[in-house]
Write a structure and sequence with these properties.
single chain, alpha/beta, Protein-Tyrosine Phosphatase, Chain A, Severin, five-stranded mixed sheet, 9 helices, globular, protein phosphatase
Length: 291
C-alpha cells in the first residue's frame, strides 16, 4: 500500500498528479487509482480512430451537442440504448442497439449490419461516432470489428490500433471471443456456414436460425442462432426459420408470420452480407408453410 506520509503527498496531490499525456509520469499511482483516473479522463474525450472518419467515446460525449458539433460528427452508433439515450435524432443519423456488457451477449449478430452502416456513412463523407456508456467494451468491440474488416487486421492488431488512441478500450471476454471468431470468418479460415472448432454439435450439422426482432424498441429483424429440435414439426409457425449449410440458405416462413415481406427482406440482406464480408457466393430459397 502506498504510504502518503512517506512521500509527503496528500491524497488530493496524488489525484491531481495524474498525467493523461505521458503514462510514464504515472508510475507513482496505485494501479486501481490510475485506472479510475484514466477512465475519468477519457470519459470526456472523443477519440479519433480513423482520421476524419471514425470516432469512439463515452455517453458523456455522445450527449454533449457542442462536443459532437466540434468534432463534426454526422452519424452515431449507440450500442447501449438501455442506459444511453439517442439524444439528438433531429441533428444526427443514428443506429441504435440494446446491448448489455456481459459475456453471454451475442454482439456478433450485429457486426455485419453495423460495419455496412459505418462504411456507407464514411463513403458519403460522414464522420461516425460509436459509443456505449464508457467507451470501453461495447463500442470498442464494434470499432475493432470495423478495423479488422476494413484493414484486414487480426483481433490483436485491431485492438492495439484502437488502444493507441484510447487505451481504456477493452472488450469483455465474450466479445473478445466473438471478435476472434469474426477474424476467422473474414480471413476464410472458418468457411461460410461452418461451425467453429469445439462446437458441441457435429461439424456437418447445418446451422439453424430464428428470424426475430432485436428489441421491442428497435424491432428490426435478425437471424438469431437456435438449437435444433429433434422433431421438425414442432418448429413454431409464428416465426420464420433459416437453415444454412455452407453458403446455401433455406428460409421456411411459418403460416402465422405477420410480416412476410419484412422477413424476406431481412433474410435477403443477411445473405448479401455474407457475400460481402465472408466473400462467399450464397444461394437463398424461400419456402412458405402450407404451399
Amino acid at each position: 500500500m502506498l504510504n502518503l506520509e512517506e512521500i509527503n503527498m496528500t491524497e488530493e496531490d496524488i489525484l491531481n498528479s495524474y498525467d493523461p499525456d505521458n503514462e510514464e509520469n504515472n508510475y507513482h499511482l496505485p494501479h486501481h487509482i490510475y485506472k479510475q483516473l484514466q477512465l475519468k479522463h477519457f470519459r470526456q474525450v472523443c477519440s479519433e480512430v480513423v482520421p476524419g472518419a471514425l470516432f469512439i467515446s463515452s455517453f458523456q460525449v455522445a450527449s454533449d451537442l457542442e462536443s459532437l458539433r466540434k468534432h463534426q460528427i454526422t452519424h452515431i452508433v449507440n450500442t447501449a440504448a438501455d442506459i444511453c439515450d439517442s439524444c439528438f435524432p433531429s441533428e444526427f443519423q443514428y443506429i441504435t442497439y440494446y446491448l448489455k456488457d456481459t459475456n453471454n451477449e451475442d454482439i456478433s449478430l450485429l457486426f455485419y449490419r453495423t460495419l455496412e452502416w459505418i462504411q456507407s456513412a464514411i463513403s458519403m463523407g460522414g464522420r461516425v461516432l460509436v459509443h456505449c456508456r464508457e467507451g470501453v467494451s461495447r463500442s470498442a468491440t464494434m470499432v475493432i470489428a470495423f478495423l479488422m474488416w476494413k484493414y484486414n487486421l487480426s483481433f490483436e492488431a485491431g485492438h492495439e490500433m484502437l488502444q493507441k488512441v484510447r487505451p481504456i478500450c477493452n472488450p469483455n471476454t465474450g466479445f473478445t471471443f466473438q471478435l476472434l471468431l469474426l477474424g476467422k470468418k473474414l480471413s476464410g479460415t472458418l468457411a461460410c456456414g461452418s461451425r467453429p472448432a469445439g462446437s458441441p454439435l457435429a461439424p456437418d450439422r447445418p446451422l439453424l436460425f430464428r428470424v426475430a426482432p432485436h428489441h421491442p424498441r428497435e424491432p428490426f429483424l435478425l437471424l438469431v442462432p437456435a438449437e435444433w429440435s429433434s422433431a421438425w414439426p414442432s418448429i413454431d409457425p409464428r416465426f420464420a426459420w433459416v437453415v444454412q449449410r455452407g453458403p446455401q440458405l433455406v428460409c421456411w416462413i411459418g403460416s402465422q408470420v405477420l410480416d412476410v415481406a419484412a422477413v424476406r427482406d431481412a433474410v435477403s440482406k443477411h445473405s448479401h452480407r455474407l457475400e460481402v464480408f465472408e466473400r462467399c457466393q450464397c444461394s437463398l430459397k424461400f419456402l412458405t408453410e402450407g404451399e
